[in-house]
Amino acid sequence: MGKQLSVIESIQIEWVPVDSLQKIFMKKEPLSCPRVYELSGMEGETVSFQMAYRYRKPYYSSQMMVQATKNPSVRVRVQAPEDIRVKIRKVGYVPSAYPAYGEYDSDYLTTEPGLYPDPLEAMGETIQLIPFYWRSLWIDLEIPKGSAVKNGTVVLQLETLQGEIVKEAAVEIHVVPCELPALDLIHTEWFYSDCLADYYKVPVFSEDYWKIVGNFMRAATKRGVNMILTPLFTLPLDTLIGNERTTVQLVDVWKHGESFTFGFEKLERWIALAKESGFTWIEMGHLFSQWGAKYAPKVVAVENEKETRLFGWGTKADSAEYRTFLKTFLPELTKELERLGIEKQTYFHISDEPNAGNIETYKIAREMVREELKDYSILDALSTLPFYKKGIVSYPVPTNEHIHEFLDAGFEHPWVYYCSGEYLEVSNRFFAQPSYRNRILGVQMYLYEIEGFLHWGYNYYNSQYSIRHIDPYRVTDADDAFPSGDSFLVYPGEDGDAVESLRFLVLEEGLNDYRALRQLETYKGKEYVHTLIEKMAGMKITFSDYPRNAAFLLELRERVNKEIEECL
Question: How far is CA 449 from the centre of its chain?
Fold first, then answer.
């Protein structure tokens, strides 16, 4: 009878601490990644890294060894300073059938369809080792405000089910005794409550609906989202002409002959939940259809005790009926916003992504509401400079591909966004792109004094044009429409909770870089910080030119933390 291996002998594991900007693919060696041995962070900040691991033993060598060596499970043990909360999650893998457009730059990690690391999944008591494939754990170190820790050690161990330690790695954590300042720019990731109702199959405005909406709201604000898209009427976004999205209209409308009355109880509950969840800013859903403001949004009303669709694709934006409706509705709405005390924190939208051919229709729509919204800022994603130069929109939001045209024109309130169309050179967060391309946005927004960042995809779980609902764990490209990673940042989890993506955590790291740079500026001045960034980058950073590596961002942040501490 052959010798049966002991449990420890059978477990041959690589257990490697790497930084948060690495994407660990199952069949790609991460051994070239710099090892993480030291990290630093400020009070109130979450500092993240990963533990990449691989089991290097075959399933079994003979039937005699099956029980000892087939798919062994191990426990993860953590030792950390008492007041630093350690959160460990598994990096999950999801399919991408459409990782990139046919045109791409040399910065992409790969353009091959396959499984990509993205969702951060809850970890049970054990992890099961799979032979020959790399996996990773995502480690968050949450530093509390007023932390008593200055220097500490986080030890991560793997132990067998029998309690024997087989692997160990240690990472030093240094806490800068200064609180990370509050985010002073506006950040919106468009929120779709209809997608939540559709995925979880709960009635809109049921108590289950409100519970799930609150969960996803809190998940957003935890990572630096501070403005929420609010569906006065069902959002006229990404909807096939003639089709409808699930109705999530927050304003009740009653039609009495030629007149209207309104109920704001649902809107009031939404606003209260948003404020309770940590949102500071409110953006009202678009008052006209996407791509040119040619039609009214879907509006449902009760008439003669029957609910009916009052407006929609069949209603021209400048029709007499819709004009009359807005003239009645908007004064009532603004009165409600004033009653709620949020008029100074509220923005409005006209139409999403109008282009040069839509200037006249957009201008007509803008004029239709100018008087009623004269005390409010109008915010719209658009990249056609004449909209701004002609004063048609007060807060244009150009893409990072076009923002320098607006900056050169004296952009008074610079905002920026990106979506699927910004796939060459500029920052974005597709699965197939390196994480530093996501995180660099924070440095860019600091350098160019950006006031707000907008993205259209927090939780869009529909196909393009909302033709059908999708399962985001199976379809990550909106049905072959956008490269995977464009249409959502969080996944729907069990019990109505949001499951974060690694891309969301990396985006937060970029925002934290921005906050730390602002803090250093208070001590040493803007010119000093700008010079420091340029010197470490070895170049002038723009929205399309920046160091193409993770090391720059990691080293810059360590330097900023060190200089802040020296100033204290």
Answer: 20
SS3 content of the chain, % helix, strand, coil (to 5): 30, 25, 45
| Helix (H) and strand (E) counts in the chain | 13, 24
| Pairing mode of beta strands 252-256, 299-303 | parallel
What values do phi and psi take at 244, rounded to 5?
-130, 155
Q: Are strands 165-179 and 151-160 parallel, antiparallel or unpaired?
A: antiparallel
Spatial separation of the C-alpha atoms in residues 387 and 41, rounded to whole Å: 42
Which of the 8 DSSP states describes residue 163? S
453 in Cβ contact with 398 (< 8 Å): no
For position 58, what pLDDT does the model report? 59
- CA dist., res. 418 & res. 484, Å (int): 14
pLDDT at residue number 59: 53
Please give the pLDDT value at position 2: 36
Are the beta carbons of 556 and 538 closer than 8 angstroms?
no
Q: Which residues, given as ranges, of the chain have pLDDT below 50?
A: 1-9, 60-69
* Angstrom distance (rounded) from CA 55 to CA 528: 48
Return the pLDDT at 56: 82
Give the integer Cα–Cα distance in Å for 549 and 482. 25
Q: What is the pLDDT of residue 130?
A: 82
Is 439 in contact with 216 (CB distance < 8 Å)?
no
**What single letter denotes the amino acid at residue 429?**
R
pLDDT value of position 563: 98
Give residue for tokens 């309690």: 163
Q: How far apart are CA 420 and CA 428, in angstroms?
A: 8
State the DSSP string of 420-431.
Answer: TT--SSS----T
Neighbours of 276 (CB within 10 A): 12
Counted residue by residue, the chain has a size of: 568
User: Which pLDDT score is estimated for 31?
Assistant: 60
Local structure of 554: helix, strand or coil = helix
pLDDT of residue 72: 76
* pLDDT confidence of residue 66: 42
Place of tokens 């009623």: 372
